[in-house]
Design a protein that fits this description.
The complex is a heterodimer of chains A (480) and B (61). With 480 residues, chain A is an alpha/beta fold. Chain A folds into 2 domains: 118-265, no CATH class; 274-478, Vaccinia Virus protein VP39 (Rossmann fold), CATH 3.40.50. Chain A is built from 17 helices and 16 strands. Chain A has a 7-stranded mixed sheet, sandwiched between helices. A 5-stranded antiparallel sheet of chain A has the order 1-2-3-5-4. Chain A is globular. The longest helix of chain B has 20 residues, at 21-40. With 61 residues, chain B is mainly α. Chain B has helices at 9-18, 21-40, 57-60. Chain B is built from 3 helices and no strands. Residues 43-61 of chain B have low confidence and may be disordered. Chain B has a domain at 7-39. Classes of the chains: A alpha/beta (480), B mainly alpha (61). Chains A and B meet through helix 4, helix 7, helix 8 and helix 9 of A and helix 1 and helix 2 of B.
Chain lengths: 480, 61
């Protein structure tokens, strides 16, 4: 289980000349290293014997050809600088941006789950086991899920169990059930616990429903939790037990097939959300929107960009404009339903350059997992050339009480260039946000103060008052 | 050779049950082994002297 960081996070690994990825350590048989633009996966002697045995299999060539498995090229481990502990190595392409399941929308996690199940089934048919089942092994290139852990495959005996089942439940199935059956967002659970939702927790969260039984609950949740509790103290050799009981690839294939069906039937029950129905756009006259589009296009198109972030992307209108002038766009929004709709639209287009993510700016940035660095925070995973910050600042300032200066500090640390929209104090949306706030508490939320704070940190290249008369948009570069 | 994740007896029985008709016999046999182990002290294992196998699924993965 590991990831390929988009931005090198170099650590000195005492066993290697290269920088080991901080999220790559749970599986002792392989490890990911980053060096410049290369991502190298090293295999231990035990890992090499697995990869040698499985790499010629048909499911591997099929998955490589379809792009479902990340492109992989064998390289000489010593010549790429790996320590002698790593006796084989592969080179992978660098991902544009690494994202985590707690930043995905429902259908992103669902597609990642189906990718995991499809690969596990295909491997099984070729006599190969997939040793784990974690969404951290899947990444999105735009809207396309890609399985990135070439170290997940191992030789299996015909009677071996599926080691990843419990993990699949904890990290794919239960989060999807939470959303689908209870309408509860899974993202806070996944961010709160890097290992996901345990069977016991899920059993307590998901009550029985007589009129509309929840598919999969009885076996994967209730029975699973009971079996976990019942057998927690057993001292048994699982492999021998499995073999004696007659476990087979056919049994596991039936299990995987049923899980595919179950996951495939889980749906978001797309309902109205804050921003999906009530659009910020309601406040624009059409001419304002056109002006804004032109302004953003001119700002982004002034040179070719490697990576653009669109914070508060809504339906992705401006992400698409930025995408025409950049290699990759990371489109973020604080409404997971909005993100899901954008994802589905990008998926339908087979878009691989815009990555939609659920990010709540008021609660972002921390790393999770081992020592808080196993899965780094979002601001440590990319270096955007430009950040679009359109119609966001008033929500964060007024609703979440995060000062305008603090938001501009974040932007200054994050990027050399911004396109930022500031709604004035008399903007209808600002008035609405202030409606139930104490009078005067946000009296510093005004254009003059904003321009003063902006000017301390950025040089304004251009600005325009939108024809609505209540919003000004700025293109600014960081002061050197 | 074990994988780095612990499949765990409980999860493994459920995997078989989840396979429906194909797996129910396997699950039943595993359950039976568990039942027998209560009387014999052996849970489907044939341990070498001094070997302690680890089937605690709740603590390692």
């Amino acid at each position: 289980m590991n990831h390929l960081t988009a931005t090198p996070r170099h650590t000195t690994d005492s066993m290697s000349n290269l920088a080991a990825d901080k999220g790559s350590f749970r599986d002792p048989l392989s490890r990911v290293f980053v060096t410049g633009d290369d991502v190298i996966r090293g295999f231990s002697a035990m890992g090499k014997s697995d990869i040698d045995a499985v790499w010629s299999k048909k499911f591997i060539s099929d998955a490589l050809a379809s792009g479902e498995l990340i492109a992989s090229e064998f390289v000489d481990s010593a010549s790429v600088g790996l320590d002698s502990e790593w006796v084989a190595a592969m080179r992978h392409p660098r991902l544009p941006f690494v994202s985590y399941p707690y930043e995905w929308s429902f259908n992103m996690l669902k597609d990642a789950a189906l990718t995991q199940l499809r690969l596990t089934r295909a491997a099984l048919a070729d006599g190969v086991g997939v040793k784990d089942a974690t969404p951290y092994n899947v990444q999105f290139v735009g809207s396309r899920p890609v399985f990135i852990d070439a170290g997940s495959f191992e030789v299996r005996k015909a009677t071996d169990p599926w080691y990843g089942y419990k993990q699949f439940c904890e990290m794919f199935l239960y989060p999807l059930m939470l959303q689908s059956y209870l309408g509860v967002q899974f993202q806070p659970f996944m961010r709160g616990a890097v290992n996901g939702v345990s069977p016991d927790t899920m059993r307590k969260l998901l009550p029985m429903k007589l009129l509309r039984p929840r598919k999969g609950r009885l076996i994967h949740v209730v029975l699973h939790a009971a079996a976990q509790n019942k057998f927690a103290d057993t001292k048994v050799d699982v492999k021998k037990q499995s073999a004696k009981a007659g476990m087979s690839a056919a049994v596991l294939d039936a299990t995987l097939r049923k899980l595919e069906k179950l996951v495939g039937e889980l749906s978001l029950h797309d309902k109205e959300s804050t921003w999906s129905e009530y659009s910020e756009r309601a406040h624009y006259v059409e001419s304002s929107l056109d002006e804004k589009e032109r302004f953003v296009r001119d700002a982004v198109a002034s040179s070719h960009r490697h990576q653009v972030w669109d914070i508060g992307c809504n339906d992705g209108r401006f992400s698409r404009i930025a995408s025409a002038h950049s290699d990759h766009v990371v489109a973020m929004d604080a409404d997971p339903l909005v993100v899901d709709r954008l994802y589905q639209s990008l998926r339908n287009e087979k878009n691989t350059s815009i990555l939609p993510l659920y990010v709540d700016l008021s609660d972002s940035g921390g790393g999770i997992g081992w020592r808080g660095i196993e899965r780094p925070g979002i601001f440590d995973r990319g270096k955007p050339d430009v950040v679009l910050f359109l119609a966001v600042i008033h929500h964060v300032a007024i609703t979440f009480n995060i000062p305008v200066a603090a938001q501009l500090d974040l932007l200054r640390n994050l990027t050399p260039e911004i396109v930022i929209e500031f709604p004035h104090a008399d903007d209808p949306m600002v008035k609405r946000l202030l409606l139930n706030k104490r009078d005067g508490i946000h009296s510093d939320f005004n254009l003059a103060e904003f321009e003063r704070l902006l000017g301390e940190r950025f040089d304004v290249r251009s600005k325009m008052l939108l024809s609505s008369g209540t919003r000004t948009i700025f293109h600014a570069t960081r002061k050197s | 050779m074990f994988s780095y994740l612990d499949a765990g007896t409980g999860s493994m029985i459920v995997t078989a049950i989840a396979g429906g008709v194909a797996g129910i016999g396997v699950a039943a046999k595993m359950g039976l082994q568990r039942f027998k182990s209560k009387f014999t002290g052996k849970g489907g294992q044939e341990p070498d002297a001094g070997e302690s196998s680890d089937g605690d699924s709740s603590s390692h993965d």
